Amino acid sequence: MTAPGADEASGPSGASETVAEPAAEPAAEPAERRLHPVTPLRRAWAPVAVLIGWAVHDPDGAQRHLARLTTTTLLIGLAVLVPAAALYGFCSWWFTHFAVTGSELRIRTGLVFRRTAHIRLERIQAIDITQPLLARVAGVSKLKLDVIGTDKKDELAFLGADEARTLRAELLARAAGFAPETAHEVGEAPSRQLLRVPPRVLALSLVLTGATWMSLAAALVVPPVLWLLTHSLWTVLAVALPLLGAAGASSVGRFVAEYDWTVGESPDGLRIDHGLLDRAHETVPPGRVQTVRLVEPLLWRRRGWVRVELDVAGSSNSVLVPVAPREIAEDVVTRVLPGVSVPEAAALSPAPRGARWCVPLWWRGYGLAVTDAVFASRSGLLRRSLALVPHAKVQSVRMTQGPWERARGVADVCVDTGANKTVRARLRDAAEARELLAAQAERSRTGRRDARPDRWMA
Hints:
Layout: E1 6-10, E2 16-20, H1 39-43, H2 45-57, H3 59-68, H4 71-94, E3 97-100, E4 104-109, E5 115-120, E6 124-131, H5 133-138, E7 140-147, E8 154-160, H6 161-175, H7 180-186, E9 192-196, H8 199-207, H9 210-230, H10 233-258, E10 262-266, E11 269-274, E12 279-284, E13 289-296, E14 305-312, E15 319-325, H11 326-336, E16 349-350, E17 367-370, E18 374-379, E19 384-390, E20 394-400, H12 403-408, E21 410-417, E22 422-429, H13 430-450
Antiparallel strand pairs: 1-2, 3-4, 4-5, 6-7, 6-12, 7-8, 9-10, 10-11, 11-12, 13-14, 13-19, 14-15, 16-17, 17-18, 18-19, 20-21, 21-22
């Protein structure tokens, strides 16, 4: 009998000898790393946030409890709360580790209840780096990951600014198929700037946007009317504050968020950098863009400006270009959708005249063009929007027709994309819609067969 793990060999005397093979060494576990040491300061706010949330939820009760507090009780409370918050922040940081293996990013968190997230590298859609204002002061960054099949982003907050860029480049390299031992040497792919939006142009575009003036007018008109009708300060505040917030978000908020918007081209996709207070470094992943929309508000048309928006599978990136001349915007679209050209306005087939009885006046804004590469649908009269869907990204196609549309001989053709969004070709002739339905299903099948692989740096 030969012992397991041994081979028989015949010696000089003819007797059999057993020679043990060396045992295979187990694969070494990847080294686990911790987040930046300033992270506890961020997480120490959690107990304080709980108290603030309770005070907001029950302001009367909070006011009664505060009125009963003496100076001694308040000092004792602070002496307990501050160390408890600091201990919570330290423990949450100490028991958080992450490691990069050959196939996944592993994140372990939790002191009492342990949670381990296994993020497969090939399922990563995008990796963004963001720097809130205080993080920029501290020299740290937040790494956000868009992963297929998850609604919320996994994140590593916070890492050193240089470490975040290095880790992002390593993850993208491994997702692209580089060997683990060489992935960290690849570094961040070089980038070439395609466009930069000047602050003056961005500010003027917001002034010429109708939503800005409508929200501002509502914030100025509605509260005085409510005061005349109710004479209730709480009712006025409950309505005025959200309206003022909406007006600020549509003007000042957008300017701050989209300030210094820069788009660059690199092997791992289109890179977007923007932000006045909070800086964001985002990437539009190649092959994941499902729909591109060119939006033209009424007051922008004289200047030839457009806004480019995106639907990306599994990603929250929704803006590619906040404002740019149409020629430059179309050039950027060809970079994110290779081989696609934006149809001219004259190439769009308008809705039939019978559609005017379904949607009076607004029917003139609808149009459709189907090329070898995309399904292009236009909608809107004051705020035009041209949606481009590559045939390879169409998941399903269907025709819908209500009773009034049946009476007028028109129908809608809808294409569903992988981003759980639908693009509609509104009010087409019913016979045309049926032909388009069959033809689009065939285009989608051939488009998916000939599409490029959805890989980083492919």
